[in-house]
Amino acid sequence: xxxxxxxxxxxxxxxxxxxxxxxxxxxxxxxxxxxxxxxxxxxxxxxxxxxxxxxxxxxxxxxxxxxxxxxxxxxxxxxxxxxxxxxxxxxxxxxxxxxxxxxxxxxxxxxxxxxxxxxxxxxxxxxxxxxxxxxxxxxxxxxxxxxxxxxxxxxxxxxxxxxxx
Length: 165
What we know:
Elements: E1 23-25, E2 32-34, H1 44-56, E3 59-60, E4 69-71, E5 77-78, H2 81-91, E6 100-107, H3 128-143, E7 145-156
């Protein structure tokens, strides 16, 4: 026993012994906490404070009502107000309790001549027609959305109210 805590010693042939500890002291507040993952360094309270701090550092913008939203550092997406209200009713919370972030989308990646580098000889030069067609196609790709949404870097707050029953 150390500090009135039972210690179970297990030989560790390789790796850091810290990766096998079930409890650790929080790097922020020093309080002992149970580790759920080997890489955890903060207790639950300090981890939550860090997430909230990171969220509050994001630029605050007004939501346009159309762009999808996502809960910060999560994969819960909302595509309209009805989705948000339904989620809040199921979770028994208010929209103002959610840390919502405006989503961004990605475009399809451009194609360059390196795409064919393994299929041509070193001295190969593309024809002017191929250069023009590839430029035209890349311009098309630049405008084409993948319709895949990602967490953006702008937060929003909503004035919606969900009646609690």
